[in-house]
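Form 7-S
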Amino acid sequence: MIANLLASAAAAETASAILLPIGDHGRLLGFFTGTVFCLLVADLAIFHRNPRPVSWLAAGAGVAFWVLLALGFNAFMFFFAADWLRANPQPLLQAGLLKAEEVQSDSIVALAADNASMDLALKWLASYVIELSLSVDNLFVFVVVLRYFGVPASLQHRVLFWGILGAVVLRAIFIGAGVAVLHRFGWVAGVFGAFLLLTGVKMLLPKGGDDLVDPGRTVGFRLLKLVLPLHREFSGSRFFSRVDDRLVATPLLGALVVIEFSDVVFAVDSVPAVLAITHEPVIAFTSNIAAVLGLRAMYFLLANAVDRFHLLKPALGLVLAFVGFKMTWHWWTGSDLLSVPVSLGIVLGTVAAGIAASFLLPPKRPARTV
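Output:
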């Protein structure tokens, strides 16, 4: 299903810019999305079959599992791309990474394929790190939403599970549309870059980007109330209930709808940030989804300490401003401002500095708890 959604970008691909065309990698995307689906089903049907609070130990193990799985897939992407480009050097030719007379030399083709694959793998890792970092900053929204609807600890995993599943579909749509627009209208890259630059600057300003979320006033909550009346009482782990022979939404559905609409807002920042790193739809989609998958476990690990990361927001502002300026520079000059390894080092260093500074300089106000 996700492969079909991403296929909307395939018609807009320019051969000179895409090393891993969607049309040639439907099986890879099918394997990836199928694996994601199976892991999510196993998570809900086996490991969390009975609603119960998630312990810090289980959450920590979950974070480690998703991060290691993502890094394993990152390594897999390098070897996969290298093998595919060796057997299909045409994209290397069209991208100017290989000359026509060099195609007959297996060693030269292999070297060009390995170099291109390393670049793709580093872009995957950079996209993953940026998306994961932005997701940490969004955990506070989840805390506010679940607390607003009074969702008990034993049911929070269920809400976040379906929220993550919906996010997978939404990200496929946003990334597919973003890639298609970028390749049809090159000038949009300048717009995306300027938007990220302005967003980053806003996050650096005092109170900048510090949005106070009122779930009761969000678009998602208002739309839900137009469709179904919201009942104040829970009905076990169900999203719907019947009161006086009338179908009503439980607070679980209210929390889920607000979280899904919040992810749309999150994607406005995160998807352009990923597309600033790479226009490869396969790389952008898989790295984005890999980061989103670990968000649920991260919530249960960091929810009680999310306010302690008070200096992460300005650090993320610097990251967004950096990738926005880099994207704008590439659109304006046609050349990369910095190499991928250097860019990845800047992103990792900035995020790490923000986290370390948050612990070294704790906030003056007491941390919120769930």
